[in-house]
Amino acid sequence: MEPQKNGTPNAVTMANETPKKVCVTGGTGFLGSWMIKRLLEDGYSVNATVRLDPERKRDISYITNLPGAAERLRVFDADLDKPEMFAPAVEGCVGVFHTAHPLDFAEKESEEVKLKRVTAAMKGILQTCADSKTVRRVVYTASISSAAFDPANTGLIDEDSWTDVELVRSLKAFGGHYIVTKAVTEKAAIELAAELGLDFVSVIPTWITGPFICPNFPESVYVSMALILGDKGHYQHLKESSLVHVDDVARAHIHLFEYPEAKGRYIVAAEQFEIGELSDFLSVKYPQYKMPSPDSWKDVAAVKFSGLSTKKLEATGFKYENGLGEMFDGAIKSCKERGFIN
Ligand SMILES: NC(=O)c1ccc[n+]([C@@H]2O[C@H](COP(=O)([O-])OP(=O)(O)OC[C@H]3O[C@@H](n4cnc5c(N)ncnc54)[C@H](OP(=O)(O)O)[C@@H]3O)[C@@H](O)[C@H]2O)c1
């Protein structure tokens, strides 16, 4: 895609302005790209931030070819390492959905480097929103990771639960850096938004799965498919777990942007289960995929993502539209289309 010269230094795609304009950071991601799709379908104009290579050769046609994109999507180059790059994308927007976050489970960089990057970017983006005078609410994509590791948890995780980052560090859990960066960033964002007088809402999704339009195999879809893929390393994440369909997560973000009384944090989780129940469900619905024997997970210690209270979101009138059937139908279809599974 050729960058267009349009007076905005890093604006790549230009389209008509409308008053219902919002910004989505991380527009190339699994959730970000689906958010763009949903927002365009709902009539919004979207300023999406993406990371472009210096030659601007990255193929982002899966978002720029979406229905409505030619008229209502503008794409901006922005990297979390340079928070000032997000300002042109926020300009003139009434809402900002901040989803961009590194999901580097391989932990190639140190926790310190990642933490510095995401918190500095979050601060820059919130300051830009406060300065804009147009942004009326920021909706931040947090994660159940920032609530689930609460030592005070007595079996129910709700919006008052907070992950203890020292506990996570001591556990040396898979994705530990991610869990810490999400928890620290969300807390710091809530505090800074209060200082700046910004209307700020956190969306706290559990594992997201379902169909995807991005070209890669999204990490969380991969985890949700671990029984189908036979990847024992992730049985720990499904043992006592929960899932939510990507479209319900996108809808929850938009609902919480539009719902006037939205305040604070909202857990988003549609289905909670034990691994045996998930295995039974998958074996009946998709007999072509042979499920592993229960012996293969019996000694696996659960990384618990169940026992979640979703009452606060439901009390706002939000309704989940997708269950496990829609999640796995969508995920399997997208995986097959890309040749990730047979
Ligand atoms: N998927 C889940 O189960 C789940 C659950 C709870 C919360 N979340 C949250 O949802 C959000 C989206 O996650 P996802 O599953 O959609 O992951 P994803 O597909 O990896 O998307 C992450 C997005 O962040 C962008 N990003 C990463 N590092 C960046 C940087 N340095 N500068 C600019 N952009 C950067 C990525 O850009 P590139 O394409 O250039 O890498 C991508 O667009 C994240 O905040 C995540 O914490 C996800």
TrEMBL record:
GO terms for molecular function: dihydroflavanol 4-reductase activity; flavanone 4-reductase activity. Residues 22-265 form the NAD-dependent epimerase/dehydratase domain. The lineage of its organism: Eukaryota, Viridiplantae, Streptophyta, Embryophyta, Tracheophyta. Pfam families: Epimerase. It catalyses: (2S)-flavan-4-ol + NADP(+) = (2S)-flavanone + NADPH + H(+); a (2R,3S,4S)-leucoanthocyanidin + NADP(+) = a (2R,3R)-dihydroflavonol + NADPH + H(+). Its EC number is 1.1.1.219, 1.1.1.234. The keyword Oxidoreductase applies. It comes from the Eukaryota. Bifunctional enzyme involved in flavonoid metabolism. Pathway: Pigment biosynthesis; anthocyanin biosynthesis. It comes from Salvia divinorum. This is Dihydroflavonol 4-reductase. One of its GO terms (biological process) is flavonoid biosynthetic process. The keyword Oxidoreductase applies. Belongs to the NAD(P)-dependent epimerase/dehydratase family. Dihydroflavonol-4-reductase subfamily. Keywords: Flavonoid biosynthesis, NADP, Oxidoreductase. It is an enzyme of class 1 (oxidoreductase).
